[in-house]
Structure formats: structure tokens, C-alpha cells
Predict the structure.
Amino acid sequence: MAQPSRANPLRAPSQPKARSGRGPALRAPLGGQNGVRLGLLNDTLGFHLRLAQEASFVAFARRSGTCGLKPGHFATLVVIHENPGLSQTALGAAVGRDKSTLTPRLTELEQRGLIRRDRAATDRRSYALTLTPAGEEALAALTAHAAAHDEALDRLVGAENRAAFLDALRRLIAGLDSDNR
Amino acid sequence: MAQPSRANPLRAPSQPKARSGRGPALRAPLGGQNGVRLGLLNDTLGFHLRLAQEASFVAFARRSGTCGLKPGHFATLVVIHENPGLSQTALGAAVGRDKSTLTPRLTELEQRGLIRRDRAATDRRSYALTLTPAGEEALAALTAHAAAHDEALDRLVGAENRAAFLDALRRLIAGLDSDNR
DNA sequence: CATGGATCGTAGGATATCCAACAATTCGGA
DNA sequence: TCCGAATTGTTGGATATCCTACGATCCATG
């Protein structure tokens, strides 16, 4: 049976129409606050995990973009800072990216003068990654953005829930990671 | 100052070496359980959100792959099932994907006979999406996988924490989404 | 000290995703 | 009624990511 399709909340978001046309396009509210029913999805951890992560990613990108660096660069710089001399493979394992994904990212960071890739003396296959002074500066700037970002997340999660929330995420990571290999 | 690099836990994961070489490659534990320090990342919601989401995605993909469908297909089918006749744009808004991303996905689902795209009578620009009987069957199979998956997530999060965890995710989605546009 | 298996970083191919631009269509005002 | 603005789905270009394959290198075992 075909939908009556009159005053049908399912057809198109049909925004209030008034927009001061700046930037890309207004995105419709996610998670089915449109009048679109999500059914099973409504009570599913996995789906909400995805939406929350993507929203967080975009929000962080908006902040960090002001200094010409994207979210992926942040984790990269932090880990190099914390572990000077580590290899690309080890870096990838730590930040959760394939080593082949890091190749162009590190090339770019090197060309921008933020990191150094020295051939490791003890193993000439690998590079020893370090931050340059400029890299440390960039990291400091990014760190400020990251702090502000995580504060925003904290406010949404609620300070009293933060620890439990983070623990739950850690359990998911540890538990699923052991499955995923 | 160059790293001494002897007994240096930062160089390479250097797995226990014994592997029964099957499948792709063993992935090193994420989240810096390698001996690699994560520094700031260690206490950051955003970073853990990303790792948890990706792990969940991969885990679900492994389940759903057994019936030839990927995670993205699940949300698509659920929402069409719940909202027969909706448009591609409305679907995209609900599942959090750009309409142009859905074009090839819907084309594929249509070719596999799982959905129908009828031109909407009232608006000939848009399609009215519905599930075919085969699509309903596929959805049923996927739903079983999804249920098992979310049970696995529930176990890791802890039944007593589930509601609070989900609420926190919802607050993040709602709060960040309003920023991200 | 040879040699085969493991590991390093890179290159290439495949996918998924976004945004911008487009033709077709709809809709709201003059 | 007519026209400009908005919307629909598609296309094309740009990224980010993964996996596989590869040459170079390392290392454990003979």
C-alpha cells in the first residue's frame, strides 16, 4: 500500500526554509529527530557510538582546522612527542592506523617541518620519528584545542559520569580489539 | 640526544614472534598497550570514542559479513523498513550519511533486489524507497547479527551501565550536532 | 657465516566518505 | 501565471582508510 504521503513526516527534512546562506549546507539533525523513525537503531549502542564519534570528530576538526592541522595529526604528534624515536609501525599501532596510512601523513608533516624522520641506527629499515621545535609548537597549539574540545565533551557527558563513561569505552576497546584479530 | 635504543620499549611492537601465519596480520593492541605512551590521549574522551567506534564497526562487519552485507547496509535497511516511502535525502539525514554517499549503496541494494526505488508521485524529483520481500528477509538476518553484536557490547559496558552510557552518547550526539552546522 | 622467515616503510588498488556542481523539478511570491 | 530560489538525486573530484605486494633489511638457526 502506497503511503498517503500527505503531511507525511517521512518525506524530506524540509527545513524551516530560512537560512542565512553561509558555509556548506545545513545538515539535518542526526539520529532521526526528523520525524523519521529509527526503529531498532534507536536503542543500539553501536549506532549511537558511530554518530557520537563522527560528531566529535567533526567538532574537533573545526577547532583544530584553525591552525591548519586535522584531528589525525593531533594523535600523531602527541604520540611522537611522548615516544621520541619510535617507528612508523609502532606509531600506527598506538594511534590505530595502518602503517601505510601514515606514510603520506608523515611525509606531509615532515615537509611542513613538524617532524623528523631519521633512519634508525640500529635498524636501517625503520625511521626514528621525532618532533622538531616547530612540531612542538604545533602540538602545543593543538593541545589547547584538544583540551577545549574534551571539556565540551565533558560538559555534555556530565562531570559525574565522565569516569564511568571513559571506563566503558576502554572496556569496549579492549574487549572488541581482542576479538578483532 | 639520540635514544639509547637498547631494550627500548618504543621501537616496534616486536610481537612474541610466534604466530601461526593465518589471515592478514595480527594487529598490535590499540590504545598504547604496547609500551608506547599515549600521553594526553590517555585521558581523552574523543580518542577513546574513536577507538571504540572503530572496534565496534569491525566487530559488526565480521558478523554481518556472513550474509554478504556490511554494517552500513543495516542502518539503511532498518530505516527504510521503518519508514517505507521515504526519500534518499531523508534516509541520509537519518543514518548520518550524505545523500551522494547513498547513491551507489542504494543502487547496489536495488540491483540485489533488496529495495525498490519508485519515483514519488507527488514529487518526481525524489524516490520512494521500500524494502522488497527479499529485503525484509535480509533485514531479519542482519537484525539477528545486530542483536548479538549489541549484546556483546552490553556485556562489555555492563548491564548496569548501559542506560547511562547510551544517554551520554545521545547527549554527545545532540550537543555536538547542534554545533556542527 | 649462510639462509630463510619476519619486519620496515612504500606503492598500488579498492572502498567509503565528503563537498561542489549540475539538470530536473517543485514551490512561493509577484 | 511566471520566474527565481530551493530541493532531489547524480556525477566528479578530493581524502582517508584498508589490504596486498614489494624490495630492503634484520635476525635466528643452523
